[in-house]
Design goal:
By secondary structure, the chain is mostly beta strands. The chain has two helices and ten strands; from the N terminus they run ββββββαββββα. 9% of the residues lie in helices and 41% in strands. The protein is globular, with a radius of gyration of 15 Å. Pfam families: FliW (PF02623).
Length: 169
């Protein structure tokens, strides 16, 4: 099945719309994830599948896919993919503790925004409000960090240069 990811949000008075067609099919590696409070701005959307992109060229990105409302699916990036700019161990453990997640079971995901700027794409990640996943219980929450070092629109320029993105017809 082909779906269109439409991530529309406003950040700093700038409207961003991600509109990418991707193939989505059931796969044994899909992880069912329940967000009891949903994502900020999408509190009614609580059931997701964490999926790999079928095309390897999009690795390490993943899709937080909403099977009930595919338009409310999101591109995410595991924190460990950021080579040195993931949460500190202290911040990660503090966040895990807040949700009662064992340190070994926590996984951090960043929501990614992809903005078309002509013949290239500007890719940013929201480091300020990551998704905190309890891998043992398949539960997740979006969490706002109080640390001012974490940006809402952290540029992924290095990743942008190495991963070629395109729109499928």
């Amino acid at each position: 099945m082909k779906v269109t990811l439409k991530n529309e949000l406003t950040t700093r008075n700038k409207k961003i719309l991600n509109n990418f067609n991707i193939e989505v099919s059931s796969h044994k590696n899909d992880i069912s994830v329940k967000l009891p409070k949903g994502l900020f701005g999408f509190s009614q959307e609580q059931n997701f599948l964490l999926k790999n992109f079928p095309q390897d060229k999009f690795s390490p990105f993943r899709v937080l896919y909403n099977p009930e409302a595919p338009d409310y699916s999101f591109i995410v990036l595991p924190a460990e993919s950021l080579n040195g700019f993931a949460l500190s161990d202290q911040e990660k453990n503090k966040t895990a503790s807040f949700y009662g997640i064992a340190e070994k079971s926590v996984k951090i995901l960043y929501i990614v925004t992809i903005q078309n700027s002509g013949n290239s794409y500007e890719i940013t990640a929201n480091l300020k409000a990551p998704i905190v996943l309890d891998k043992d219980n398949n539960l997740a929450w979006q969490h706002i960090l109080d640390n001012p070092d974490y940006q809402v629109d952290y540029s992924l320029t290095a990743i942008s240069e190495t991963i070629k993105l395109h729109k499928d017809n």
